[in-house]
UniProtKB/TrEMBL annotation:
Keywords associated with the record: DNA-binding, Transcription, Transcription regulation
Protein name: LysR family transcriptional regulator
Domain (HTH lysR-type): residue spans on this chain: 1-58
Cross-referenced Pfam families: HTH_1, LysR_substrate
Gene3D superfamilies recorded: 3.40.190.290, Winged helix-like DNA-binding domain superfamily/Winged helix DNA-binding domain
Organism: Prauserella endophytica
Record-stated family: Belongs to the LysR transcriptional regulatory family.
InterPro entries assigned: LysR_HTH_N (IPR000847), LysR_subst-bd (IPR005119), WH-like_DNA-bd_sf (IPR036388), WH_DNA-bd_sf (IPR036390)
Top-level taxon in the UniProt lineage: Bacteria
Length: 299
């Protein structure tokens, strides 16, 4: 049994297929398949069910997976221990983010870390908040920029980057533009412009509507709050966006939503137990420092 085989197996599981795993590993797909078949022969059981359109773990594969992850983590830990003694930082770190978090200087954050630690491989993944938080809990991500309402999820430590009320953003000639506040129920008959399902702000809106017995009329969805603002400024509906997004636009009026008042938090999230190694610790320190410059105090 080789570490390479275990790494290929774990990557196929994480990427939900051989094609994406091969791309991530920079290895031809037949090579990945061959190594996993060799691993299965050595263990005497199939680890992956290849009969469907997607690859799934068999019962044996589910039993082997945590040990494969532990073996790879142990090897990386041994390398990191030696690197710490020699003063060399290397390895890999993985960051995740919501698509709407790109304006928070993520590119500068990653470039700055790479400049300081060129021996560390850095990867970035975009997904919805739930998937990102699962990735952090399971160790597939070292940190992630996520949005949520209320307190931090269990097992997750956070540093708040944005903490704002959500507003109904409309163009200045809209009937809502002159109001000080708008009850959520008053938006039930309006065409809403929102993030897609899975995003933190969308989850806050959906939960509030469910609690009020309202079915929102979502007319447009986009992953970037700036695009939502653009659509609202052209009179296509009411955009549900953070207060700062509307405040920065001269062509929009942001009306606070009340009864209930909606509030969202964007935060850097990592495992409450702490980073898994020196590279992850260095990255987390760098990310927290970089994102502190973007922090918006609660309104």
């Amino acid at each position: 049994m080789e570490l390479r085989q275990l790494r290929y197996f774990v990557t196929v599981v994480d990427e939900s297929g051989f094609t994406r795993a091969a791309e991530k590993l920079h290895v031809a797909q037949p090579g990945v398949s061959a190594q996993i078949r060799q691993l299965e022969r050595e263990l005497g059981q199939p680890l992956l069910d290849r009969s469907g359109r997607s690859v799934r773990l068999t019962q044996a594969g589910s039993a082997v997976l945590p040990y494969a992850r532990a073996a790879l983590t142990a090897v990386e830990g041994a390398r990191c221990a030696v690197d710490e003694l020699t003063g060399l930082l290397r390895g890999s770190v993985a960051m995740g983010m919501l698509p709407s978090c790109a304006p928070l200087g993520v590119a500068d954050l990653l470039a700055g870390f790479h400049e300081r630690h060129p021996g560390v491989e850095v990867s970035l993944t975009e997904s919805d908040a739930g998937t990102l938080l699962d990735g952090v809990r399971e160790g597939r991500l070292d940190a992630a920029l996520v949005a949520f309402g209320g307190g931090a999820p269990e097992g997750i430590a956070t540093q708040t980057v944005l903490d704002e009320h959500l507003v109904a953003a409309v163009r200045c000639g809209d009937p809502l533009a002159g109001r000080d506040t708008v009850p959520l129920r008053a938006l039930a008959e309006r065409h809403l412009i929102s993030l897609p399902p899975g995003g933190g702000m969308r989850a806050i809106l959906d939960h509030a509507c469910t609690a009020e017995g309202i079915t929102p009329r979502i007319a447009f969805e986009a992953g970037d709050p700036g695009v939502l603002a653009d659509l609202a400024s052209r009179g296509l509906g009411v955009a549900i966006v953070p207060e700062s997004t509307a405040r920065d636009r001269a062509d929009l009026c942001g009306v606070p939503i009340v009864r209930p008042r909606l509030r969202g938090t964007v935060a850097l999230a990592w495992r409450a137990a702490g980073p898994s190694g020196p590279a992850a610790r260095a990255f987390l320190d760098h990310a927290r420092s970089s994102l502190a410059a973007f922090a918006v105090a609660p309104s």
